[in-house]
Amino acid sequence: MTVRLPSDSKIEMSTSNNSHAEILIVDDDALSRKILAQVLTSAGYNCQVCGNGAEALEMIHAEPPSLLLLDFDMPGANGAEVLKELRSDQHQAVAQVPAIMLTAHGSEESEVSCLHAGADDFVTKPVNTAVLRARIETQLRLRSMRRQLERQNDELERWRHDLERDLAAARLTQQSLIPQKPLVLPGWEVATCYRPVIQVGGDIYGWLRMKDGRILFWIADGSGHGAAAALLTTLAKLLFHHGNVEHSSPATVMEAVNDDFRSIFGGRSFMTAMCVALNHTNGSAHAVGAGHPPLLIVRHNGATESIASVAPPLGLERSKFVETALDFKPGDAFLLYTDGLFGSSKNNERRVTPQQLEKMLDHSAPTAEVLLRRVLERATPNNAEDSLSDDLTALAVRRMAP
Question: Is 3-150 a CATH 3.40.50.2300 domain?
Fold first, then answer.
């Protein structure tokens, strides 16, 4: 092998950011090994040498170098065979050692052969040290970038794991807040549906017994998704419970929730809500909405009604809440829901309107469960839970026929 040293080699081979990198020089010619080792050592690299492929494989498995400088033509296992074995090694540190092939064949076919053999680059003989140094520096930079990327990937994986753990904890917390079984109420049926986009969502619902014995059915939809939204739902439940203890009408409960929400977030966050205070003994009720989708009612004779929210969403401004008086006869039902029911398919641009939802209410449904299921089937056809673009929550309450 001939190693050509340019007159300015001391400048070209000055120490770089990759100095002290371990380079293994593999060549069956002792003089060539010696010259290359001297040149690269003077440039600041730590060099080791060996004379054949078998010895090289042993050294690499014992301590993988930063870079492998490998002669293509050697007796026994040539450079291509050595690389083939390295690249198939089960240990990533061994299989990914950067390799520059030294070849005396300057043809295009030879270059392709080197790359097919697994070489990252090649240098033709006689070796120009400036070219060799540039190729070495390039491969060491790529190696450094790959290691940095691997570290970043490891950090991202740890972040993903931590996020999933936090979401799992938030999911358990939120699940503990959502009623696990429908309310058992003499003469009435209650059916529910809760489908968050991810593990946790911004929807929540519940029911509370008021001071006068009425049942307050309530539903809320906070802004956002994920752990932050789950915290909002936790707060919503606490505020509705606190408001129900302190106040005796759905309007004053909603007003209390709004005031507390505003005092906490200062108008920087909001949620929509709707509640129905039901006297289950005689069927009378009062409804209050705050920026929420309309309450839908279906009568036993097929007639439908829609009760819109008059007040703005909770948390934005001080508001007065107006109650709408209602009366439910046997066979009548009402539906509380979040806006996820309007258009929850990521791949379907069609959005259902409240008016269309109202027409989907089936007065012939024998139970609240069937009523709710038919609405979901019509509003979200062929919609799997993993295709939701927004949280979907619904609550159907039906007065049973005698």
Answer: yes
The lowest-confidence range among 99-103, 171-175, 387-391 is 387-391
* φ, ψ for residue 369, nearest 5 deg: -65, -45
Percent of the residues in the chain that have a pLDDT greater than 70, as a whole number: 87
Positive or negative, the CA dihedral 110, 115, 119, 121 is positive
Give pLDDT tens digits for 195-235: 876 666 678 899 999 999 999 999 999 876 666 777 788 88
User: Which class would CATH give 178-399?
Assistant: alpha beta
Assess whether pLDDT exceeds 70 at residue 16.
Answer: no
d(CA 130, CA 4) in angstroms, rounded, equals 9
| Residues 6 or more apart whose Cβ sits within 8 Å of residue 42 | 10, 13
User: How do the domains of the chain map onto residue ranges?
Assistant: 3-150, 178-399
User: Do 100 and 135 form a contact (C-beta atoms < 8 A)?
Assistant: yes
126/142 Cα distance (integer angstroms): 25
